[in-house]
Amino acid sequence: MPKLSDAAFCKALYKQFQDEALPSEDERYEPVYEEHPDLRNYDHATLIRRNIEFSEIESLTLLSGFRGSGKSTELNRLAGALKQKGYLVLQQDALNYLNPGEEIDIVTLLNALAGAFSDALAASDIGNALKQSYWQRLRTYLKTTDVRLEEIGIKASTPAKTAEASLKLAFQTAPNFRQQLRSKLQVRLGELQREVNGFIADCRALVKKKRGTDSQIVFIFDQFEQIPGAPGLSSHQQNLIENTKRVFADYLKYLRFEYIHTVLTVPSWLKLVLPGLQQRLVANLPLWKKDAKRTVRPDSFKVLRSLVKRRFDQVEPDGIERFFDGMKPDGSHPLLDHLISASGGHYRDLLRLIRETIVRAEKIPLTQSIVDQATYTVRSSYLPIAVEDARALHRVAELRAAAHQTSSDEDVRRLAQFMNTHMVLYFINGDEWYDLHPLIREEVAEIVKRADVLDRKETRAAARAEVAESS
Amino acid sequence: MDDAGIQPLDRIYRLEENAEWRHLLDHLRLLDGFGLLFVLAPEQAGAEVCRRALQRHFAAQGHALQSVQLHLQEPRGTLGDSLLHAPAPEDAGAVWVSAPEAESATHEEPVRQLWREALAALNPRRNPLRRHLRVPLIFAGPMWLQEICREAAPDLWSIRDTIARIEPARRGFPSGGEMQRGIESTQGERIGETGDPEDTRQALAHLREKTVPESEGANLELLKTRLLHRLGRQLWQRYQWDEAEAALLEAEQIVERHHQNLEEQVEILFDLGRFLTDRGDFVRADRYLRKACKFANAHFGEEDPNTLMSRNNLAVALYDQGRYTEAEHEHRAVMAIRERVLGAEHLDTLMSRNNLANALCVQGKYAEAELEHRESLALFERVFGAEHPDTLSSRNNLANALGAQGKYQEEEKEDRSVLAIRKRVLGPEQREVFRSGFNLALNLARQNKLPEALEIAQQAENGHKQVMGENHADYKNSVRLRELIEAAIAKEKAAKKE
Predict the structure, then answer these.
(1) CA B145 vs CA A424, B38, B370: distances in Å
(2) Complex confidence, ipTM
(3) Full-prediction pTM beyond 0.80?
(4) Residue B86's pLDDT band (boundaries 50, 70, 90)?
(5) Which residue in B has a C-alpha nearest to residue A386's C-alpha?
(6) Burial class (CB in 10 A: 0-12, 13-18, 19+), B427
(7) Taking residues B72-78, what's their average pLDDT?
(8) Interatomic CA distance for residues B258 and A207, integer angstroms
(9) Angle between the B389-404 and B347-362 helix axes, to the nearest 10 degrees?
(10) What is the pLDDT of residue A136?
(11) Which of the residues B276, B308, B369, B478 could staple to B281 if both were Cys, CB 3.0 to 4.6 A apart?
(12) Backbone angles phi, psi at A385, to 5 degrees
């Protein structure tokens, strides 16, 4: 194969480092958990798969992870592995059924789950055998309630197929209709649950008939964590926290479907407001130890070097050598290690840093200056940091824990915000701990130091002024 | 803004020379399908220049730049609908989303709120966007858009590809701030070499022909070095690059051969470094700058003022090269030594603190930069008094840091204060007064206080012309600023007529 020109090489590289969830069995996938002894117990795709295999009958898994931690890639892996083992895997995107930013309630969520399940089954290889979709069943049920379907254009004379499509569309796109469902069905929750379970039992029977009696169904409802948005200070956002909490604290049993293995992604901040909730968190790769010096962990560097190399290999054998020049036999290179260090072990930031170097590399091999510029560019997206935020971040850095000063909404919001923006990184290796993203560590320390000096000066000046006034 | 209004802006922004702009185009070239990019500019005009340039860029490739404008009057959740429910743009090269400009700094909140709500509503629709758009999505707005998006739309923010911060090519207060230009007096004087290079050439020619006894040879070489050094600087100032480089290199070779005047040797090495930086030859520049530091360190010691000044100058040159992290590191190191050896209130320490603050500011570490500036300004005021030139420079730099954060009213207050004191202390016809006037005019223009901005900008322009001449960059900048303000006034008038 002729060698690519530098420009073509960089273009191909850039594509390899674009940020996207990897499909199962993708060659770029780095077996992080297999290679990393501490994380072997946190290989969620494998653990969930085993849980499903062992529990045999049914299960509910809540999976969360901070942005860019590889959650969707892990779910794709899980789906791939389960399919190989003969499971019928139904995977749906919650964003197709729920209105983002809208408060979550159990009525809407149950309908969304059943509707998504129905659509996924209809799209599967046995879809043709599905006699009645959930949307048709829901229409029949709603006729027994005082929900007014005329408002969404469904009359008694509307043909079944048209009515089904209208109902689904109204549920997906019309907030007023969802509000009507919510208010009318909240008091009939038991009924609704029976309808949903009845539908799913029918589906289960169909699957048994078509795929054999041992056949099991796994339902993955992905991206649900994005629905409630991020908690904030406004009253709307406080309601959002409360309502989401209620769904998972009071109605969790409604989300367990008989003979179905359900995997639901949930917002990572739920951990802060509902500490007792059992959920699996996809953690960050720890590049350093939880000790005072933040001792570097060579095993994590090894994993990330290999992750980077895999993507270079997709473009050109030994492409990594061409780009960095002077790779050592152990796969290390000072510039590559600099980028890995700067990423804090956060995959999305690592990909972003490498993309920035590719864009800036007018000539290859790479130089220190290009790496510095790329690091500076990515770093500056974390800035500026308000002094009060810096103080809270500083506390996390000192304690290495997600401690917040008070349990007030503001403190929870702040911490959730830090995690959302991965200014605070989450780690598990035996212990569960937190630390600042390395790109902002120095900045935070400096801001706090300077702000303290200023505070002391202002206090002294105020005291002097007070003395002067009293004398 | 119409084409007539944009042309002077094109000259101010000079995108073709802007590295951030080039990187943005590279990202657009390399992106395959959807991407999320941000174009941040300190003023709406900058974003508009970028939008038009991108329009041209895509038109040359047979594509269109599809624009989506947020409106204050519209419901805030409609951005997602505009992007998702409109047919996927088949021929579009990218989609450009912008919002109206705030009427002034005091009326900025509605625009912030508009962005906040639009982005928050779009945030959970990240994946549908990725699937539907298939072309890069560009959000263009003020510098604070970064923080708004980070807080209101963390999911979107999380998948950003890049952020291009597009600043005008030359501004009254370059992003480094005034302190970088003048407060380090030994450094400032060196650049501003006066005198006619022809006279220096003749003196050199005379010296080269001269035959002297061997005992006088060393002195002759020393003199020749000085003349070559001077000639190099004079030619550099006139942008006669090749001849300037030849003179400086010859000076460096002679002085290295003879080692007669160590201080001069450090200065020549340093000047070569800065000259090459100015010329864009960063690799060689770096070599000379580091050599100067190493040399000073070896001969004068780590804590010697010459060494520290060299290191400070290296840091300033690193700053000029855009190597802000290294500049910050170096400034911190120099400041720490100066603080220990000379004390926190020594002028040199305060200079370091100011330069450090400027390096922080340009990296977007505004909070820390502002704190540093406030602290050093307080010290300058206490030690040297409120009217000392360095105190005023410090105040000017604080204004710069405030402006960079969009705190235009606070910036205005500081700018007015600096201008008033300089006028009173120096008299109205001084270069520093015109520079302060320029900064204030720019600040007022950003706040849409256009008539007053125009009046002050015209004064600055006339003053610069009179004092520095028509070829000087300061004069050219003030002409550009005046044109920009006039264009904005014309646009406002036209809007009123409509």
Answers:
(1) 21, 9, 20
(2) 0.70
(3) no
(4) low
(5) B367
(6) exposed
(7) 70
(8) 93
(9) 20
(10) 93
(11) B276
(12) -120, 125
How big is chain A, counted in residues?
471
Hey, CA dihedral for A375, A378, A380, A384, is it positive or negative? negative
> By CB neighbour count within 10 A (0-12 exposed, 13-18 middle, 19+ buried), where does A408 fall?
exposed
Helix (H) or strand (E) holding B93: strand B92-98
Of A22, A139, A113, which Cα lies nearest the Cα of A76? A22
Contacts of A126-130 with CB under 8 Å at 24 or more apart are A126/A88, A126/A206, A126/A207, A126/A210, A126/A211, A129/A206, A129/A209, A129/A210, A130/A203, A130/A206
Which residue of chain B comes nearest to A457, CA vs CA?
B375
Q: Please answer yes or no on whether A380 and B163 come within 8 Å at the CB atom.
A: yes
Predicted local distance difference test score (pLDDT) of residue B105: 54
Domain assignment of residue B104, yes or no: yes
Among B18, B29, B30, the residue to mutate for chain A (most A Cβ within 10 A): B30
Residue-wise DSSP of A102-119: SPP-HHHHHHHHHHHHHH
Q: Give the closest residue to A404 by CA, choosing from A437, A384, A434.
A: A434
Tokens of A470: 């009293």
Residues B21, B75: one domain? Answer: yes
B147: in domain = yes
Q: What share of chain A is helix, strand, coil (3-state, %, to 5)?
A: 60, 10, 30
| Same domain for B300 and B286 | yes
Residue A157, judged by CB atoms within 10 A of its CB (0-12, 13-18, 19+), counts as exposed
CATH number of domain containing B350: 1.25.40.10
Domains, chain A, with CATH or none: 6-18+287-380 (no CATH), 37-282 (no CATH), 387-470 (1.10.10)
Interchain proximity A348–B159, CB inside 8 Å = yes
Residue in the block written with tokens 């480094």: B176
The vertex-B479 CA angle with B475 and B481, nearest 5°, equals 115
pLDDT in tens, B270-312: 888 888 876 767 778 888 888 888 888 888 888 887 788 878 8
Q: What is the extent of the structural domain holding B253?
A: 170-361
> Three-state DSSP class for B141?
strand
The reply to whether omega before A365 is within 30° of 0 (cis) is yes
> Of B361, B381, B411, which closes a domain?
B361
Answer whether A67 sits within 8 Å of B326, measured CB to CB.
Answer: no
Q: What is the pLDDT of residues A94-126, one digit of tens each?
A: 888 887 667 788 999 999 999 999 999 999 999
Verify whether the Cβ–Cβ distance B371 to A14 is below 8 Å.
no
Percent of chain A scoring above 90 in pLDDT? 35
User: Measured between alpha carbons, how far is B447 from B458 in angstroms, rounded to an integer?
Assistant: 17
Residue B191: band (very low, low, confident or very high) from pLDDT cuts 50, 70, 90: very low
Residue B44's nearest CA partner among B100, B119, B117, B6 is B100
Q: Assess whether B115 and B248 both reside in one domain.
A: no
* pLDDT at residue A232, as a whole number: 55
Q: Are residues B45 and B181 in the same domain?
A: no
Same domain, B83 and B222: no
Q: Which of B165, B189, B206 corresponds to the end of one domain?
A: B165
Q: Which of residues 405-424 of B touch A (CB under 8 A)?
A: 405
* Amino acid symbol at B158: S
Asked whether the beta carbons of A124 and A133 are under 8 A apart, the reply is no
Asked if B364 lies within 8 A of A380 by C-beta distance, the reply is yes
Indicate if the pLDDT at residue B170 is higher than 60. no
First to last CA, chain B: 14
Give per-residue pLDDT as tens, B223-249.
Answer: 788 889 989 988 887 767 789 999 999
* Angle of CA points A69, A353, A289, to nearest 5°: 55
